[in-house]
Amino acid sequence: MIAAAMVEKKRRDSATSHNRPDGVAPLSVMWLAPQLILMAFAEAFNLLGLLEFYYKEFPDNMKSMSTAMFCVMAGVGNYLSSALVTTVHKVTGKHGRPNWLAADINVGRVDYFYYVIAGLGVLNMGYHLIVSSQYQYKEKIQGSEEESKLDIELNASKK
């Protein structure tokens, strides 16, 4: 999102400095390629990692629920995204200033919105690191249970 914010700032500065009547910035559309490629790779790795985690960690009789869980999380994410946009509209459009997501993109500050999303991503990453450091994998738990059963059986056979 930082890349998107930097490209948006360059686009907005170009549009306001050239001051064309149609408001179009004289920039190539290829300026969007880096941010779209980064977002595509991030989404692909996220999807693959999440589905692999679900398949490995869900109980055997709930494996098919993993895909449904992914779809539910995508839906919840869309609702949260809508709530974020509504909140930005309400909070930033005060005191006679246009909001960041104004209808005229050259008046709005979409780059600030991208920075807010990047900040939320950093907070989410911090939360993820805290939670994932406390997580115990299913294989690790099952392995320790099998070792304890083995110890009990060995002790019983020694007597």
Q: How are helices and strands ordered from N to C?
A: HHHHH
Radius of gyration, in Å, reads 25 Å
Category from helices, strands and their pairing? mainly alpha
Number of helical runs? Answer: 5
Total beta strands: 0
**Beta-sheet strand percentage?**
under 5%
Shape: elongated
Low-confidence stretches: none
Helical percent range?
A: over 70%
Q: Overall mean pLDDT score?
A: 84
Report how far apart the termini are: 65 Å
* Main sheet makeup: none
How does this model look, in words?
There is one protein chain. The longest helix has 28 residues, at 65-92. Helix 1 (2-18) runs antiparallel to helix 4 (110-134). The chain has helices at 2-18, 33-57, 65-92, 110-134, 138-158. By secondary structure, the protein is mostly helical. The protein is elongated.
List the helices and strands and how they pair.
Blueprint: H1 2-18, H2 33-57, H3 65-92, H4 110-134, H5 138-158
Helix pairs in contact: 1-4
Short synopsis of the structure:
The protein is mainly alpha-helical. The protein has helices at residues 2-18, 33-57, 65-92, 110-134, 138-158. It is 73% helix and 0% strand.
